[in-house]
Amino acid sequence: MWPQGLSALQVEPVVRMFDILRTGGCDYVVQSDLKHMLAGILLSHPGLEFLQDTPEFQERYAETVILRIFYNLDRSGLGRITLRDLKRGDLLSALILLDKEDDVNKVLKYFSYEHFYVIYCKFWELDADHDFFICKEDLLRYGNHSLTYRIVDRIFSQAARPFASKVEGKMGYEDFVYFILSEEDKTNNISLDYWFKCIDLDCDGCLRANEMLYFYEEQLHRMECLSQEPVLFEDVLCQMHDMVQPEAEGVFTLQDLKRQKSLAGILFNILFNLNKFIAFETRDPFVVRQEREDPTLTDWDRFARTEYVRLAMEEEGEFRGSDNQNELWVQQNLEGPF
Predict the structure, then answer these.
(1) Which of these CATH numbers, 3.40.50.920, 1.10.10.10, 1.10.238.10, 1.20.1600.10, describes 118-316?
(2) Residues in domain PP2A regulatory subunit B'' EF-hand (predicted)?
(3) Which of 104, 237, 255, 257 is most buried (CB neighbours < 10 A)?
């Protein structure tokens, strides 16, 4: 397995990990290659002991972790992780932390049970008929109806990425995981690429005023319906230009957005997420203070923490007096989701 003349200990750790994970002599890792690793983690990690009697939830947790890993590391979008991807990524450091940390929820990269809980619950809330698929009408309810019809149409046209679901007009769980990770953290290359493809109607690698206006028109209409003071597109375009500072005036490329990652997501929220656009306009000082207090947290980390608290509070009445909320949630929902 190892290069001739070298022992396992002399091989770079990430190379050893790659050789252990891949199967059949392939020069890449696929999703199924990670199942054995997740099975071992579920069997041995003290923070996941409460799942040992519920194989259905173990399966969903493992699937979600694997999808999160591929979301971050599969640079080609072909469902493959190469050695180069692993070297550029953070899976090894996350596994090292997981080995040291008994509280799995402190391992924010990939393995947090709370993060899985939030993703799965959000999917289950939208999946009205519980067939494990989401249609356009289901997704329109996401985030208290925050998304426009036009952006949902683009998602379902598979502009951002081809659906793993083979059911026409339906988004599966994998597709939803990619969506929610991109929607709730628009400050990384993966999510910026996802939304850029949705807005780039003519696929020429540039976002132009006519494309942005196409999406913003619906935002204007929604603001008027909610008696919100509408913000003219000309003002919005000027604001976006000042934030992103594109190389060519009035034309936004993906590279322009990646140079301004911390601000680029605001451009997308302005175009198709009314609730986040209004939140940006009002500049909630509490949210700003939260971000300044712990700048190491990503937008996804903050969202997941807030949503987990909300879900826990909703269930507090049912679970009052319990010492293990996670275990009771599993027992309560074991028959429902599956």
Answers:
(1) 1.10.238.10
(2) 15-101
(3) 257
Alpha-carbon distance of 108 to 58, in angstroms, equals 18
The architecture that CATH gives domain 8-111 is Orthogonal Bundle (1.10)
Domain(s) of CATH 1.10.238.10: residues in the chain? 118-316
For the chain, give the mean pLDDT: 90
Exposure string over 272-306, b if 16+ CB within 10 A, otherwise e? bbbebbbebeeeeeeeeeeeeeeeeeebbbbbbbe
Question: For the chain, where are the E strands, in sequence order?
Answer: 206-207, 252-253
C-beta of residue 73 within 8 angstroms of C-beta of residue 86: yes
Phi-psi region of 209 (alpha: psi -120 to 50; beta: other; left: phi over 0): alpha
Mean pLDDT, range 252-258, rounded to an integer: 97
Tokens of 111: 């393995």
pTM: 0.90
Encoded tokens for 124: 């289950």
